[in-house]
Amino acid sequence: MSKASKPKPLAAREKETAQIYDAVCYAIKHQSFCSMYISGKPGTGKSATMDIIAESLSKRKDIDVFTINCVSSHTKTALYNVISMKCMNTTFHCSQALKNIEIHFKERNKPLLLVLDEIDYLHGHNPLLLYIIYDWPTLFKGKVFVIGVANTLDLTHRMLPKLKGNEAPLTINFMPYTSNEIAMIINNTLIKEGDLDQAAIQLCSKRIAAQTGDVRSALTTARQCLRSGNVDSDEDNDEDNDEENEIVKDEPKTPAVKKSAYAKIFANLNSVSASPIVRTKIPNQPKIIMAIILKLSLKLKTPAITEAMLAKAYEKVQPILKAAPCNRFEIKDALSLLESQSYIRVKNGKYTLGVDAGAALKAIADHQMISEIEKLNI
Question: Where does the source fall among the domains of life (predicted)?
Fold first, then answer.
């Protein structure tokens, strides 16, 4: 059997990396069932960990590894074309694609690992396709392995009743990083980029851990502080104080964060929190849905909103905004998109904002829409 060196895990993701890698290696050795569902909030290292594992496994001669992003390949035609091109270097008409792909799977001499990133996108757009994919490890045991990566935590529970056979995917949840883990990652990553104020790093780490545990936000904040010299500057920004600054540098360092650093770190944190939303253009229907959720969240004492409430509210705002009608399936799609981008959270079929009101307003970026919805009694 071909061997390759074990993957070098991300910091604080040693356990998850070993669990996934060992499960695949066991399935290769024993030609057994292998199906996994990797979940966790954005910024918890899911996709990066799978990239590391996929790269390591691709060096072996006893398995083929293909990674597919389901956002760009969420239709049946697109996904089948990607798989058939990777496996057979050809494509088929949509009506024949699945049949030919499954014939190829049956005739394979060595296993194939399909890593499907952002697989929860399929559930919102084409749930039947999701069930077909997760049935392959059962239908072609030892020949096709599937690992799905997603932000949605409970997707497997929703799809299990429709899967064939009795073997369920192994579920591995990437928990948000703790403040200590975030501080360690910042230090390890940015050690060569400048002097790091440990008190400022602790402040940043604790704030991010309390909010999302998204290490990318923490790194962005720390880099911004280093670039602007925030954590090294005092309250006085007078450029003529060079001599005084030299004296300060010679004094023993204390764990306290300077007052100006507090303000600037929090400003950077707020900027980083909003930046993914500012960067991402939301389609009109999801934007309206989020505006409705914002309105209802501020109106209700318990801001947990059902799909029925959203559908009823959308019917009221749709003619005012001259928007396209939105059926329940389109509402589900809009909610799935918002959830995948962490704008909203879902628990027990009820939705809440995943960001604060200010960040939601920046995401919507349509004052007229907000104003019109504010006027309505929904």
Answer: Eukaryota
pLDDT at 30 over 80: yes
Q: What is the dihedral of CA 98, 159, 349, 330, to 10 degrees?
A: 10
Q: Calculate the CA 194 to chain-centre distance.
A: 29
* pLDDT top residue among 70 and 58: 58
Q: How far is CA 256 from CA 119, 226, 232, in A?
A: 44, 17, 12
- Residue ranges matching CATH 3.40.50.300 in the chain: 14-174
Separation of alpha carbons 41 and 165, rounded Å: 29
On whether the CB atoms of residues 38 and 113 are closer than 8 A, the answer is: no
Q: Where in the chain is the domain with CATH 1.10.10.10?
A: 284-375
Q: What is the tens place of the pLDDT at every residue in 296-338?
A: 887 776 567 899 999 999 999 999 988 888 888 788 878 887 8
SS (H, E, C) 39-61: EECCCCCHHHHHHHHHHHHCCCC
Question: What separation in angstroms does the CA of 109 have from each of 61, 97, 144?
Answer: 12, 20, 11
Q: Collapse the DSSP code of 365 into the 3-class scheme (helix H, G, I; strand E, B; otherwise coil) and give the result.
A: coil
What is the model's pLDDT at position 334?
84
For residue 356, give the 3-state DSSP assignment.
coil
pLDDT digits (tens, 9 = 90+) for 97-111: 999 999 999 999 999
Overall pTM surpassing 0.85 (yes/no): no
Q: Which one, of 149, 192, 163, 209, lies nearest residue 12 by Cα?
A: 209
**Percent of the chain surpassing pLDDT 90:** 40
Looking at domain 14-174, its CATH superfamily turns out to be P-loop containing nucleotide triphosphate hydrolases (3.40.50.300)
Q: Residue 128 and residue 2: Cα distance in Å, rounded? A: 36
Cα torsion 136, 137, 143, 144: sign: positive
- The fold of the 284-375 domain, in CATH, is Arc Repressor Mutant, subunit A (1.10.10)
Q: In this structure, what token pair is assigned to residue 293? A: 């959720």
* Beta-ladder partners of 115: 67, 147
DSSP secondary structure letter of residue 66:
E
